[in-house]
């Protein structure tokens, strides 16, 4: 009874059918139809986002969901399509950055693959669990983030390869899968201080052909470039003119800033990155210990204001992680299969992105006040109302109507 009444989602299925293990005909779902069904259910589900709960509210069994979770999905292309459609609708601006960050996902037990100790920003220490590396499209003008793909970090890596090398590989793979129309809009790859390492920055700049913007340590080893005249003497020309001081800014270009801070910038040679970079230091005076942030870009022609704006836009990628953990079941996958974990994480982030873009499209006020909890409540109310209407629009006998109402009232109820 419940499957026949589920008209809103089943309307997208094909007319073909295949027998299940008991010989009963079941609807045959193509990948686009199944993904549409899954996205609908993901927003409707109260409680845990697992295969059993999906089967309680949807027209297919948990076994079918498990089977689909093992199949590969082009997540980068799907989320890139969302970005391009939002740009066509003028919901997002053209041009953006790619934010890179690792997401810690708590996981208990001993049989989940790639369990290891990873850094948890919330706890400020390394904790046993899982980790995913996420590359996010961010609109610097509106600070709206759209995660493109999240990939699980392996616990063990080949000899001679570090986790930073793996993060660089994931980033380059994501860049390679971007459609040409979106790839031309990427202004830079942005990461926090952890990614300011040679084996990450060099690969992104040299192989990805994109500038990198990041954050440096306050004791970074930098050298001034020598700009004086040539002496004409034999030997290698002089390249550097002393060490850059982060306490004395007399040799830097000073730029007044809005919030009573001062911005200093200089093009210098980074010893650790082995390349010239534009360094931007933001200093907030007036405290006993002077607070400062040292940002940099591998593009020496990029202005200081652009570097600050793009780096500050990077933080908005943290909001989809928060919403996905609290309301989209990012941390609730109960499968032990690597493919299922990959599918679950990407589906959770895609549900948040689709909901955010839907609110952006219909917003009346600016800036957007996004609430994933409210959208899930609206989706469930609409789902339940449609179930009621599907009963009322049909002529039913008294007994059949009672059966349908009993089925409706037991929607999602767990077996005792």
TrEMBL record:
What is the name attached to this protein's record?
A: Transposase IS701-like DDE domain-containing protein
Pfam (any one): DDE_5
What InterPro entries does this protein map onto? Answer: IS701-like_DDE_dom, RNaseH-like_sf
Chain segments carrying region Disordered: 1-24
Query: What residue stretches are annotated with the Transposase IS701-like DDE domain?
Result: 43-254
């Amino acid at each position: 009874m419940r499957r026949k009444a589920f008209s809103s989602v089943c309307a997208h299925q094909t007319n073909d059918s295949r027998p299940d293990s008991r010989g009963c005909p079941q609807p045959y779902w193509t990948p686009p139809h199944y993904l549409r069904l899954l996205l609908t259910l993901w927003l409707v589900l109260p409680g845990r986002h697992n295969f059993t709960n999906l089967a309680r509210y949807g027209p297919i069994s948990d076994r079918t969901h498990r089977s689909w979770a093992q199949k590969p999905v082009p997540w980068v292309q799907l989320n890139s399509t969302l970005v391009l459609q939002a740009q066509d609708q003028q919901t997002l601006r053209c041009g953006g950055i790619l934010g890179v960050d690792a997401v810690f996902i708590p996981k208990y037990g001993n049989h989940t693959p790639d369990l290891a100790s990873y850094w948890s920003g919330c706890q400020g220490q390394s904790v046993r669990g899982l980790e995913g590396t996420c590359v996010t499209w961010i609109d610097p003008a509106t600070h709206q983030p759209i995660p493109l793909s999240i990939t699980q970090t392996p616990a063990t890596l080949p000899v001679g390869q570090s986790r930073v090398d793996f993060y660089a590989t994931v980033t380059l793979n994501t860049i390679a899968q971007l459609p040409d129309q979106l790839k031309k809009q990427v202004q830079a790859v942005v990461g926090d201080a952890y990614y300011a390492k040679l084996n990450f920055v060099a690969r992104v700049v040299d192989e990805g052909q994109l500038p990198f913007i990041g954050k440096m340590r306050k004791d970074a080893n930098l050298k001034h470039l020598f700009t004086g005249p040539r002496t004409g003497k034999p030997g290698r020309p002089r390249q550097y003119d002393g060490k850059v001081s982060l306490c004395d800014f007399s040799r830097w270009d000073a730029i007044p800033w809005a919030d009573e801070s001062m911005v200093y910038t200089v093009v210098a040679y980074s010893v650790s990155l082995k390349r010239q970079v534009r360094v931007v230091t933001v200093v907030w005076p007036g405290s006993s210990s002077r607070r400062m942030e040292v940002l940099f870009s591998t593009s020496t022609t990029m202005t200081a204001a652009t570097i600050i704006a793009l780096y500050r836009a990077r933080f908005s990628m943290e909001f989809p992680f928060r919403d996905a953990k609290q309301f989209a079941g990012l941390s609730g996958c109960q499968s032990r299969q690597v493919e299922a974990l990959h599918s679950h994480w990407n589906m959770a982030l895609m549900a948040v992105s689709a909901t955010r873009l839907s609110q952006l499209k219909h917003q009346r006020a600016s800036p957007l006040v996004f609430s994933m909890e409210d959208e899930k409540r609206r989706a469930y109310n609409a789902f339940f109302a449609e179930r009621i209407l599907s009963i009322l629009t049909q002529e039913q006998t008294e007994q059949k109507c009672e059966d349908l109402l009993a089925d409706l009232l037991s929607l999602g109820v767990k077996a005792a």
